[in-house]
Structures are given as structure tokens and as C-alpha cells.
Amino acid sequence: MYYIKKRIEVAFAHHLTLNYASKCTNLHGHNAIITIYCKTKELNENGMVVDFKHVKDIVSGQLDHRCANDVVDFNPTAENLARWICEQIPHCYKVSFQESEGNIATYEKDDIQD
């Protein structure tokens, strides 16, 4: 099994829809650190699990300097964004999404077919 890990920093804004009073329902921003984990049994024709640049382009292109509410059609919590990013990246099995110091959400797929 081959593994890669890519760490990306993005500046993004969002507001949350919550069933309780919170300042997070107001538009606000984060400098997030996103760590993406991919694996596969066989390398692609270029000898890679997935190109690190492609991983960065997918995530940064959709989130960096954007309002997450304009990009996704769900409540953009750190947990939901971690799952969504995992679904965007080929061979991805795990994403950690640190939206601020000490606040980290992780999503990991249960079943990996690679």
C-alpha cells in the first residue's frame, strides 16, 4: 500500500445554521489547515498515488479566499467540510480540518476499495 499526506492552508469564510444562539451564525473567517491522506495499492502511470499539486488545486481552487456557503449546499461545519473534501480527492481516505487553533474535525472513510 502506498500513502501520501498533503497539508494545505486556506483562508475561507462561512456562517453556520445552528439550532442555538451562537456568534458562528454570523459571517466570519478562518485560516484553516487541511491535511489530506490518500492511499492506493498501485501507483498511477506517473508513479504516484495522486499528484500533490492536483490535491492542492482541488481544495484551494474551491475554498481558498471563498465563502464556503457559496461553494457547498450543506451547513459548512468543519466536520462536513472534512467529509466533502475527502469525497473530492481521488484515493482519499481521511481528512483533518483545523479551522482554528485547537479546533480540528476529522473524517475517515469506513471502507476503502483501493
UniProtKB/TrEMBL annotation:
It is an enzyme of class 4 (lyase). Its cofactor is Zn(2+). It catalyses: 7,8-dihydroneopterin 3'-triphosphate + H2O = 6-carboxy-5,6,7,8-tetrahydropterin + triphosphate + acetaldehyde + 2 H(+). This is 6-carboxy-5,6,7,8-tetrahydropterin synthase. The active site is at 24 (proton acceptor), 65 (charge relay system), 99 (charge relay system). Binds 1 zinc ion per subunit. Its EC number is 4.-.-.-. GO terms for molecular function: 6-carboxytetrahydropterin synthase activity; metal ion binding. One of its GO terms (biological process) is tRNA queuosine(34) biosynthetic process. Zn(2+) binds at residues 14, 28, 30. Belongs to the PTPS family. QueD subfamily. Pathway: Purine metabolism; 7-cyano-7-deazaguanine biosynthesis. It comes from Alloprevotella rava F0323.
